[in-house]
Amino acid sequence: MVKLKKDEHGRWSCPSRNENTQRYHALFYKHYDAIVYSYLPLSSMLFFNVAIVWKLVAAKCRKKTEGAVGSTALSKTSNSLTYMLIGTCLLFALLTTPYAVMYRLGAEVASYYFALWYQLIYMNHSINFFVYVIANNRFRKEVAKLFGCDKPSKVEPEGSTATTAAGTDPAK
Fold it and tell me: How many structural domains are present in the chain?
């Protein structure tokens, strides 16, 4: 039977009988957890998001110099994508870094701060959906399709003579 005990931060844990396991948790786990769950994802998000935004800006400049048709659509899409990438990156940093830093440093703070920061980590995952919905029109359309809320397209049946080429009703 496993007996649980509270640690110094008020969290329940399973006491280890093995000295090596306790040493691993004391020396390495806090650093490993912070690196794997916060620092590595944040640094990769920053690197790849900067690379994507760089490519979007380069494509936008290239389209403007070429005077290509449809550059406003590209501009709207790239702006939307840029805002979404910046938003997700900032939210990730704001919501995961406090816990990772305090946990890694082993700061002596009240257990409710750790509980709050731990909840912020999970809140990050649920907030990302709303960032995508707000910032990305195509994502909104796909979610609407998924739930069957998309507007049916207005397609005239073949051979319909309801309107002429000028858009007027021939019966009038």
Answer: 1
